[in-house]
């Protein structure tokens, strides 16, 4: 039996975290893209932060957001590569109640058409923690655009069928 989908958009509260040792809010095009995209879609920016690539600072900031019942989604850009400083996946995995394995798989599949074999160096991932979706994207603006338009935007829309994440995020 199919479930009836809502006919109206349900705005979510979304926090954005940029992980970078070099960026500032003034030159953070990836984080700004995500802020603009989520607001354009009708969602609310719950908070925004920019942190150095430090596993414990990242984990601490995201822990605050997932403990807040008013934050439904955390979008992270940066720290998903293979340099010595990239630690976003290591920071997030212990927080996940459930990993969304398909997110990273689909992100890399979609990215194949855009960047070819370089996509294997992406450690994009997502998971659910305390009824909060955490999605970790690479630091490039193009990767954030791909992740938002091809995966996140539809899955954060209650009207998307046959299923979406919105029902899992309401506490």
TrEMBL record:
A cellular component annotation (GO) from this entry: cytosol
CDD domains: MogA_MoaB
Domain MoaB/Mog: 15-159
Record pathway: Cofactor biosynthesis; molybdopterin biosynthesis
Keyword annotations of the record: GTP-binding, Molybdenum cofactor biosynthesis, Nucleotide-binding
Gene3D superfamilies in the cross-refs: MoaB/Mog-like domain
Any Gene Ontology biological process: Mo-molybdopterin cofactor biosynthetic process
Family annotation (InterPro entries): MoaB, MoaB/Mog-like_dom_sf, MoaB/Mog_dom, MoaB_proteobac, MoCF_biosynth_CS
PROSITE patterns named in the record: MOCF_BIOSYNTHESIS_1
Example of a GO MF term: GTP binding
Annotated coiled-coil segments of the chain: none
UniProt function note: May be involved in the biosynthesis of molybdopterin. Can bind GTP and has low GTPase activity. Can bind MPT, but has no MPT adenylyl transferase activity.
Family to which the UniProt record says this protein belongs: Belongs to the MoaB/Mog family.
NCBIfam families assigned: moaB_proteo (TIGR02667), molyb_syn (TIGR00177)
Record-given protein name: Molybdenum cofactor biosynthesis protein B
């Amino acid at each position: 039996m199919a479930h009836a989908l809502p006919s109206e958009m349900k705005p979510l509260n979304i926090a954005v975290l940029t992980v970078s040792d070099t960026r500032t809010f003034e030159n953070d095009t990836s984080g700004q893209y995500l802020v603009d995209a989520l607001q354009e879609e009708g969602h609310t920016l719950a908070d925004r932060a920019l942190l150095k690539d430090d596993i414990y600072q990242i984990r601490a900031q995201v822990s605050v957001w997932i403990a807040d019942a008013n934050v439904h989604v955390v979008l992270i850009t940066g720290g998903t590569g293979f340099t010595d400083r990239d630690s976003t996946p290591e920071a997030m995995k212990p927080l996940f109640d459930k990993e969304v394995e398909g997110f990273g798989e689909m992100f890399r599949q979609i990215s194949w058409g855009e960047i070819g074999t370089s996509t294997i160096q992406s450690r994009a991932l997502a998971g659910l923690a305390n009824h909060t979706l955490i999605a970790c994207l690479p630091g490039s603006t193009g990767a954030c655009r791909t992740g938002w338009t091809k995966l996140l935007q539809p899955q954060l829309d209650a009207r998307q069928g046959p299923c979406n994440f919105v029902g899992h995020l309401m506490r």
